[in-house]
Design a protein that fits this description.
two-stranded antiparallel ribbon; alpha+beta; globular; binds FE3-S4 cluster; single chain
Amino acid sequence: MVRIVVDKNACIGCGLCATICSEVFAMGKDGKAMVKAQKDIPCVKEALESCPVSAISEDGTKKK
Ligand code: F3S
């Protein structure tokens, strides 16, 4: 089971992740992304790779 994490300090609130993978990511009231459900589905990887500031990681390890 993966653990998806959004680094709120890094997130610039571009909203891409929530657009790409709305089952997992949602935009919070603070304008930053949050993980609404831990799901191991393909679009997570896509969102992870698409985030302009690499704020999304799996298992706490940042993928570059
Ligand atoms: Fe933030 Fe990256 Fe998503 S900047 S809104 S975590 S695509």
